[in-house]
Amino acid sequence: MSPRRLAAAALVAGGLVLGSMAAPAAAASAQLAESWHLMGSYAFHGDCVRAGVKAISTGTALDFACKPSGSRYDFYLYY
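Above: the chain sequence. Below: its structure as tokens.
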């Protein structure tokens, strides 16, 4: 085997090993505690509620809230 091919094979093998070790750590850090997140604000309460119902029906969130903030409604998702 030529030195160039041997070096390429070593790099590929090293990348596979590092990738298999990094995957479990990335999966563990991706699990965040459920909490409320401000997603934006709407001028009308009905638009805010529509966005919340859509988020729940698609499985994006567990709950939603539309809280008055001045003349607008802040849209919160719980996930």
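The longest helix spans residues 3-30.
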